[in-house]
Write a structure and sequence with these properties.
By secondary structure, the chain is of the alpha/beta class. Helices cover about 35% and strands about 25% of the residues. Helix 3 (about 100-110) crosses helix 4 (about 115-130). The radius of gyration is 18 Å and the shape is globular. The chain starts with a strand and ends with a helix.
Length: about 250
Amino acid sequence: MTGVNVIEARGLKKDRVSSFLLKRSPILDDLSLTVREGETYGLLGPNGAGKTTTVKILVGLIKPDSGDALVLGQKAGEPEALKQIGFLPENPYFYSHLTGYEFLEFIGQLFALKKKELKERMAELLELVGMTADANQPMRKYSKGMLQRLGIAQSLINNPKVIFWDEPMSGLDPIGRRDVRKILERLKSEGKTIFFNSHLLPDVSDVCDRVGVLVKGKLVAEDSIKDIERGGGYKDLEEYFLTKVGG
């Protein structure tokens, strides 16, 4: 891990505008955070806290009402930044008529990977996520957990420097969650910078270097896992989280 900031959010504000009387309510309220190169950062918070909105801004899917979001020193959503990130949304959409292999091939072509490189990368990723045996099945036959595994694979097809995952453990059984933790550990060992949201606090505790707690669009706490569990006076990350959100 180096001192270089790879992800930066500076005073992000985003409002929700109600269709009734055009009433505005804050989703993000002056959110600022940084993630260093090679760091794994977990953004925690109750439902509706603004976690998914934060990720969408950082990958350039939506724009903040005010504030700045930078990835790899560039404005979020800039083409040069997008080439170097991997993204798994909370509710990914898949072309159900395609096989898993065909879907990964399609994603790889979007990144203009050469045929030989793409074939090798697909084989590597299918093995990594445990989907080699099912790669030629149409995705309409996949379970939620199988789709999630494929979603993880597609987020890594371009060998990204920065990875954004929104609820990566969603739909996975305990074996699947264990496998994702192993994947995260491998990515960490390769020096990837990882930013993800999750409600599964034991998994966050196992793989993250630092966490931030978001409540009603505000970052109310931010600490390293080591400080929380060894010197922070908390039994575990769950106790820390509940204390910070007032649970």
